[in-house]
Write a structure and sequence with these properties.
The chain is globular. The protein is α/β, with parallel strands linked by helices. Helix 3 runs parallel beside helix 4, helix 7 runs parallel beside helix 8 and helix 8 packs parallel to helix 9. The longest helix is centred in the C-terminal third of the chain and has 20 residues. The strands form 4 sheets. An 8-stranded parallel beta sheet has the order 4-1-5-10-9-6-7-8, with helices on both faces. A 3-stranded antiparallel beta sheet has the order 13-14-15, with no helix packed on it. Strands 2-3 form a two-stranded antiparallel ribbon. Helices cover 24% and strands 20% of the residues. It has 2 domains: 350 residues, Ureohydrolase domain (Arginase, Chain A), CATH 3.40.800.10; 58 residues, no CATH class. Its EC number is 3.5.3.11. Keywords: Hydrolase, Metal-binding, Signal. Belongs to the arginase family.
Length: 473
């Protein structure tokens, strides 16, 4: 009895002592809680990293397709629903889906693997950490989340699950609806589009790589033929008879033939396009010959062993040039399966995540008018979500170089010839060719073609080496 009484008294004493150390709720307005403070700027945010609605990098969300009330300079979009971009008889199993924010989706089919309905949630979840410590990109010395440009997550393009041809048309029309609007910045400035206007840029998160074809069709309406930089382990320029057998018109358009169709439709600018990361097996040497006919140069993945990332960057920049409007398409299978196992058609011998991010950063300054990332299949990912994390980080690099470039307006950048009407976004060593209006003293209007090279840069000015100055009348 005495032992029981002593034990009870001891427990009471412990409980009493512990009562002085109980945790208490943090008092005060929600927006000023300590864990919401953003490091470095002294500001606060009302949400923690994992609260609030899911958007890429926790960007502001606006339903851009249903309302034009919000303008933007760069928009993230996805395609809600699934697109079966090849027939089941042609494919072994279903694969990834073109969607980002959809709460659930059906499966779509690819040549090798099945995916799940987790692409949207997992990919967006992996991107939420990007702004956790402020979002500043150290190698590129820019913060894509804090700039003069307005970046939004515009949600998804609704896509039917039951008609492939109609789904592709829906993607094209939805993308074009967003692309052809006035941007938030430099809305009335001259730009690179066919109409001479500045347009917003769209970054698309997809599944099957077939979506690049309708995206290029949309872009063609705005810019005409464009230069394409294509990161992939596969060519994707195969003729339909070679890849898939082409049993029907619908089946002829798939994730291995879309660039062939893009070339045949005149969507690609001749001899300025390039693949990087190629390491696939071929049906024969004729595949490379056909690829050249489609307007591409090839950088094989193995070249990184001899020329390194700097050599690959140089090859891409030399091929593309600094003046052309450029579209960037990234297949996650560019990465070795060790770094991104969750993809439809994995190929060993690929690049590391660090190498790909370094190469993309090396393209800083190019005129990127849009981009996509595709072929992520989270069903094959690790518990650590390596593939979706890699995809999100790659897009972070893409977004940063777009933001760092600023609006693609001709009126932005370094002044040429000391006249405000003659401006271009140029860097030292760039060759340039531009057409510039000049009003004469008598009120007449003349047009000049100016060709030259930037040989020096100053604050707000440029030194120009002229190679031609031609009056066009």
């Amino acid at each position: 009895m005495i032992t029981s009484t002593l034990s009870l008294l001891a427990l009471s004493a412990i409980a009493s002592a512990h009562s002085d150390h109980r945790q208490k709720a943090i008092a005060g307005p929600h927006q000023s809680l300590w864990y919401n403070t953003i490091p470095g700027d002294g500001g606060t945010q009302a949400d923690s990293v994992f609260s609030g609605i899911s958007t890429f990098g926790r960007l502001p969300y606006f339903p851009c397709l249903s309302s034009e009330a919000e303008k933007y300079d760069i928009a993230f979009i996805g395609e809600f629903g699934s697109v079966t971009l090849a027939t089941f008889e042609e494919c072994s199993q279903p694969q990834a889906l073109p969607s980002i924010l959809a709460p659930h989706t059906d499966l779509v089919q690819d040549s090798a693997r099945v995916a799940s309905d987790k692409v949207p949630a997992v990919l967006i979840s992996s991107s939420r950490k990007l702004g956790f410590s402020g979002g500043y990109n150290v190698p590129l010395e820019a913060n894509p989340f804090v700039s003069e440009l307005k970046v939004l997550d515009c949600g998804d393009i609704p896509v039917t699950s039951y008609d492939n041809a109609w789904a592709i048309q829906q993607i094209e029309e939805g993308h074009n609806s967003l692309l052809m609007r006035k941007p938030f910045t430099d809305a009335d400035a001259e730009g690179l589009s066919r109409a001479g206007k500045t347009l917003p840029r769209i970054i698309t998160l997809g599944g099957d790589h077939t979506i690049t074809l309708p995206l290029l069709r949309s872009i063609n309406k705005a810019y005409g033929p464009v230069t394409v930089i294509h990161f992939d382990s596969h060519l994707d320029t195969w003729k339909p008879k070679v890849f898939g057998g082409s049993p029907s018109q619908v089946a002829a358009i798939n994730h291995g033939t879309y660039f062939y169709h893009a070339a045949m439709e005149g969507l690609l600018k001749n001899d300025t396009n390039i693949h990087a990361g190629i390491r696939t097996t071929l049906s024969g040497p004729s595949d490379y010959e056909n690829d050249g006919y489609c307007g591409f140069e090839i950088v094989e993945a193995r070249e990184i062993d001899t020329i390194g990332t700097e050599g690959i960057i140089k090859k891409i920049r030399d091929r593309v040039g600094t003046e052309n409007p450029v579209y960037l398409s990234i297949d996650i299978d560019t990465l070795d399966p060790a770094f991104a196992p969750a993809t439809g058609t994995p190929e060993t011998g690929g690049w590391s995540t660090r190498e790909l991010r370094t190469i993309i950063r090396g393209l800083d300054g190019l005129n990127f008018i849009g981009a996509d990332i595709v072929e992520v299949a989270p069903a094959y990912d690790t518990n650590a979500e390596l593939s979706t994390m890699a995809a999100a980080d790659v897009l972070y690099e893409v977004l940063t170089i777009m933001v760092k470039k600023g609006p693609l307006s001709i009126s932005k950048g370094h002044e040429l010839l000391g006249e405000p009407s003659r401006r271009g976004v140029l860097s030292r060593g760039d060759d340039f060719e531009l057409f510039s209006p000049k009003d004469g003293d008598d009120g007449s209007s003349e047009r000049y073609e100016i060709i030259g090279r930037i040989v020096g840069m100053g604050d707000g000015s440029a030194s120009v080496f002229y190679t031609a100055l031609t009056g066009l009348g």
